[in-house]
Each structure stands twice: as structure tokens, then as C-alpha cells.
Predict the 3D structure of the following.
Amino acid sequence: MTIERHEPSTTADERAMLEGWLDYHRQTLAWKCHGLTDAQLRTASVEPSELTLMGLVRHMAEVERFWFHEILVGEDLGVLYSSEEDPDGEFHFTDADTWDEAHTTWQREIDNARRDAAGFGLDDLSKGTSRSGERFNLRWIITHMIEEYARHNGHADLIRERVDGATGD
């Protein structure tokens, strides 16, 4: 399987531009993970960090679910990997945890996020709120997600280089 990344159009309207950049960053994280074994995907960047590529994918599945479903749509489906006892559970693996499961879950959450966002305009406010009661328009959520992926893709660059020496944008 080849991972293709498509830069957004330079002349798209605002929504297509925002969604295009979000998809580009989603594709970038998939690209950084492509071709590695489960063991490599579980390899931490450097001690004592627990940051791994598989952990980043699981984290982004949680983030997609939180912002697009819990906040935007206003329905709490619960968390996928973390818990009150282990708030960083997405970075803690058992022998049963696999890349196939993590990738499938992440892709499902991306599909759900796209479906959820399709029902809102950029200026529409979320049905859910932050802990402090703030509501967010879809434009803010998409922009935040671009920032979230971009930051973690920087981490993914360093982890991938540590794992097998591969570099690239």
C-alpha cells in the first residue's frame, strides 16, 4: 500500500482549504508510519519519553473523537485508550495491541469526524462545550486539528528518523 499525500488547492474556498490541510496532515502521519513493523511502531523516541508512532496514531484517534463527536456533535462516546487511572493510555500497550487495530480505529474516527463535520457550517457552533462552558465554531475546531496534527507530525519526523533513519517532510 502506498501512502499518497495531496496538498490542498491554492485557490480553494475556505472550507475546502481547511479540510484539505487537515487531510494532508492526516496523510502525513500515515506516511510516517508506513512500512514499519509493530515493534518499530512501538519504539519510543528517546528515554524517558513514551512517545511512539503507534501511540501518536492512537492519540489522534482520541483527539478526532473528542473534537468532532464529543464537542462538535455534543455526544460523549467515551474514550478509546485512556482512562482516569491512565490518562496517557494511548501510549501504553499490551501484547494484544497491534498496528492494525490502531490504524483501523484511527481511520474509523477520521471517517466519523468527516461525517460529523459535514452537518455543520464553518460558523456553526458546537453542541458540546469545553469544561469551562465554551462553544467552538467548526472553523476553530478544524484549525485546531490542523495545529494538533502539525505538532505531532514534527514528533513523528523525529521518531521515524530514530527508528530507521528515514527523513523527509
About this structure: DSSP finds five helices and no strands in the chain.
